[in-house]
UniProtKB/TrEMBL annotation:
Pfam families hit by this protein: CT_A_B
Keywords: ATP-binding, Hydrolase, Nucleotide-binding
Protein name, per record: Biotin-dependent carboxyltransferase family protein
NCBIfam families attached to this UniProt entry: urea_amlyse_rel
Domain Carboxyltransferase: 29-311
Keyword Nuclease attributed: no
InterPro entries per record: CT_A_B (IPR003778), Cyclophilin-like_dom_sf (IPR029000), PxpC (IPR052708)
UniProt KW Ion transport keyword: no
Length: 312
């Protein structure tokens, strides 16, 4: 691996910009969660566009509001949400590689289509791994550009390899892989161990009613508002919590847990969103409509294998 050098400096920091690789695994017995990209689809395509292997660190930008200055020539790509990205004030094309020169300003304004954009650079951003990963989890103070779990702030620098300015062959993500995040999302859910404890009317509502994304949403989880769900289980011994777990607390409003979730929980669960469904939910703005769709394990596994095969 080549030496790391300064690639981008932060002129203005937005609400939340975090360095994310594939995530931190094998450490949940320590109470450490996985981190990683909230939307693996956008993150994976951004890396693919600049020729990076699976797992390369990219910048996850939530809501926009950030300005970055190139410290050297770089080849970058932006995928995921449209946050009104510009280069020196001109619209930056998404879902394709773009060469930028030293001194140019890369800015992200505000959500136009989706919530989280992913910025990748040739060779990936560089940082010191913590517990085997650079994934930034702010709550745990782990990973990120500084190893301490801090979001980007004005004056910070993102490091890259010396190959970061290398040209890559022209390529674009297929149109079919560029979601319109503004429409109602259908979220695939694997039924869970406690699903039989929910009343029949609640199960009907869970999979037939429209749910709204609450404004209480972050990388830890997303609360959904809609009909109240009733479960016969009122207390449980805490269990391990996986990505996408849909817990139902006593108020009957589901909470879908995402990458920065706690490692154990004691609320009954409808089941778990698939990784791609959790990623789709992570692109929803407050107030957006979503629907839960029950899927079989075999179908969910086949869908995820097809997704990963595109980046093998």
């Amino acid at each position: 691996m080549t030496a790391a050098v300064s690639g981008l400096s932060v002129r203005r920091a937005g609400p939340l910009a975090l360095l994310q690789d594939a995530g931190r695994f094998g450490v949940r017995q320590l109470g450490v969660t996985q981190g990683g990209p909230a939307d693996p689809h956008g993150w994976a395509w951004a890396n693919w566009l600049v020729g990076n292997p699976w797992g390369a660190a990219a910048l996850e930008i939530t809501f926009g509001g950030i300005e970055l200055v190139a410290e050297r020539g770089l080849t970058v790509a932006v995928a995921g949400a449209d946050l009104g990205a510009t280069l020196d004030g001109e619209a930056l094309p998404g879902w394709r590689p773009v060469a930028i020169r030293e001194g140019q300003v890369l800015a992200f304004a505000q959500p136009l289509n989706g919530l989280r954009a992913y910025l990748a650079v040739v060779g990936g951003f560089r940082a010191e791994p913590v517990l085997g990963s650079v994934a930034c989890v702010v709550r745990e103070g782990l990973g990120g550009h500084d190893g301490l779990g801090h979001k980007l702030a004005a004056g910070d620098s993102l490091r890259v390899g010396e190959e970061a300015g290398r040209a890559v062959p022209p390529r674009e993500a297929p149109e079919a892989e560029r979601p319109d995040y503004r429409g109602a999302a259908r979220l695939a859910l694997l039924p869970g161990a406690q699903i039989g404890e929910f009343r029949g009317a609640s199960l009907f509502d869970a999979f037939n009613a429209a749910w709204r994304v609450d404004d209480r949403a972050d990388r830890m989880g997303v609360r959904l508002t809609g009909p109240r769900l009733h479960c016969r289980v009122t207390s449980m011994i805490s269990e391990g919590i996986g990505l996408g777990a849909v817990q139902v607390p006593p108020d009957g409003q589901p909470i879908a847990l995402l990458n920065d979730r706690q490692t154990i929980g004691g609320y009954p669960r409808l089941g778990a969103l698939t990784p791609l469904a959790a990623g789709r939910l992570a692109q929803c703005l407050p107030g957006q409509e979503v629907r839960l769709v029950a899927v079989a394990r075999e179908r969910a596994l086949a869908d995820y294998r097809r997704f990963r095969a595109a980046f093998a």
